[in-house]
Write a sequence for this structure.
């Protein structure tokens, strides 16, 4: 087992003095402050990026407004073709982008290739198809006619303007693509503010976007800390924010947006997602489902399941078999193609997860497997299985965003539904059963924006995605995104 060799262009990219991407090219920040980008597999600094200041924000917003005025007038088919060309360029530079992503996030290389790059290209092509299909409707008003006059009306969909896309560290490439594709295909311009932990890949993609034919100013990238995102949201020259991240930060983003002149906000937040297993599910199928739902990318997925409910008669054998499977995972370097389980993305998050382990012990939860940091360089955490004592235990209620599966038994299917809904969040959930008719009866009773049956975490661009309750506002994907990136204008004519 050994790491793959980094491509020469990846090594050259990491050695760059990384600037901000404004108005179609790299621009030195007005600030002298920089941020270290740390490889979570080694804890070594691999690059430095600019920590943008208010002058940089002003420059990016000015550029984005110029870009919007031009890009919004571009023919829809042309906008779609640019996204198609960008998808081609992602695939042509697949290995380079995947390696950059793995170096900055600790994501195992197979996931970087398949999800961060391949799926990003797939989403781009899906959104490109919408470019020529955004339309209004014609309406016949029922107004009175006093002198033979008539009326007709129609609606237009117009781009909202300058979008601020705030991207999290867990899937920094794919989620950035979701936001820029939604904005660009509707005729908006966008300023991407990546996480300070994973800012590199989107800088390279911005170069490729220009190569694809995107005009200067339609896409800008500002790196930096949280103050950059706040400054962009509150800037009078921005019109919308699309945020993906934690619930507390999302609430703060929403408040800032409303307080800044009713800036529109799409908030795709996390939560405490549930997976419920009915008694008819085979044990091996249940364990495979738990690994899919809770341990992909070390559980660092907003839609991942963290609360697992199994029938009281089955919960112990499920947890035992799961512990056996987890103990056999190949934990190692994310650049080793044989690795099945890599590090979490940053030291802060590693320490947060260690705190959850301490909480579980303090509350006398049973740690079936794991429950420790891994003693090796980097930000490694053991995949962990925990049996809670009570529905009020912390690990059943607070989002961990890590490789921690917390279990609790149920006795009846009605109790299962109550347990799955016993949370202020509602991003996603899954139900596992061989009885399709029972599943279809139970799905309407589950309070979540997405409910999977016999699967979890998988997203398709044709299927709307977003949360209910405290897990967000608005929807990604499908045709639903159009409502969030356009204004509806009504036109009425008397003749």
């Amino acid at each position: 087992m050994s790491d793959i060799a980094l491509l020469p262009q990846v090594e050259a990219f990491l050695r760059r003095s990384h600037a901000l991407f404004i108005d179609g090219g790299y621009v030195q920040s007005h600030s002298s402050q920089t941020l270290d980008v740390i490889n979570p597999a080694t804890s070594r600094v691999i690059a430095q990026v600019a920590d943008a200041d208010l002058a940089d924000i002003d420059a990016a917003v000015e550029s984005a407004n110029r870009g919007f005025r031009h890009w919004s007038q571009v023919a829809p088919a042309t906008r779609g073709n640019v996204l198609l060309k960008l998808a081609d360029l992602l695939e042509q530079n697949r290995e380079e982008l995947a390696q950059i992503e793995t170096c900055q996030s600790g994501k195992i290389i197979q996931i970087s290739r398949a999800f961060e790059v391949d799926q990003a290209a797939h989403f781009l092509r899906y959104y490109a198809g919408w470019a020529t299909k955004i339309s209004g409707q014609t309406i016949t008003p029922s107004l009175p006619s006093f002198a033979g006059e008539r009326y007709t009306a129609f609606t237009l969909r117009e781009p909202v303007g300058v979008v601020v896309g705030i991207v999290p560290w867990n899937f920094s490439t794919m989620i950035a693509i979701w936001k820029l594709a939604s904005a660009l295909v509707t005729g908006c311009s966008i300023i991407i503010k990546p996480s300070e932990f994973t800012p590199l890949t989107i800088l390279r993609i911005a170069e490729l976007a220009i190569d694809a034919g995107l005009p200067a100013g339609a896409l800008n990238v500002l790196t930096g800390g949280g103050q950059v995102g706040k400054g962009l949201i509150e800037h009078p020259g921005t019109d919308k924010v699309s945020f993906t991240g934690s619930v507390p930060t999302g609430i703060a983003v929403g408040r800032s947006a409303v307080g800044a002149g009713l800036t529109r906000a799409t908030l795709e937040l996390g939560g405490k997602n549930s997976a419920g297993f009915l008694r008819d599910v085979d044990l091996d199928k249940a364990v495979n489902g738990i690994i899919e739902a809770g341990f992909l990318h070390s559980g660092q997925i907003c839609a991942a399941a963290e609360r697992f409910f199994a029938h009281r008669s089955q919960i112990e054998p499920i947890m035992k078999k799961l512990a056996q499977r987890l103990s056999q995972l190949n934990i190692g370097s994310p650049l080793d193609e044989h690795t099945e389980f890599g590090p979490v993305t940053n030291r802060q998050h590693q320490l947060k997860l260690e705190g959850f382990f301490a909480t579980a012990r303090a509350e006398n939860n049973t740690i079936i497997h794991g429950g420790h940091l891994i003693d090796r360089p980097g930000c490694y955490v053991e995949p962990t299985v925990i049996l809670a004592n009570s529905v009020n235990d912390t690990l059943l209620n607070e989002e961990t965003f890590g490789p921690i599966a917390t279990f609790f038994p149920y006795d009846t299917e009605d109790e299962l539904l109550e347990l799955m809904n016993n949370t202020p969040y509602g991003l996603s959930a899954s139900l596992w059963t061989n009885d399709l008719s029972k599943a279809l009866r139970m799905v309407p009773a589950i309070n979540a924006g997405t409910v999977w049956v016999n699967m979890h975490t998988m997203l398709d661009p044709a299927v709307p995605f977003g949360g209910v309750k405290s897990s967000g506002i608005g929807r990604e994907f499908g045709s639903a995104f159009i409502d969030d990136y356009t204004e509806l204008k009504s036109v009425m004519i008397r003749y």
In short: The radius of gyration is 24 Å. Residues 170 and 415 are 33 Å apart (CA to CA). The first strand starts at residue 20 and ends at 22. The mean pLDDT is 96.
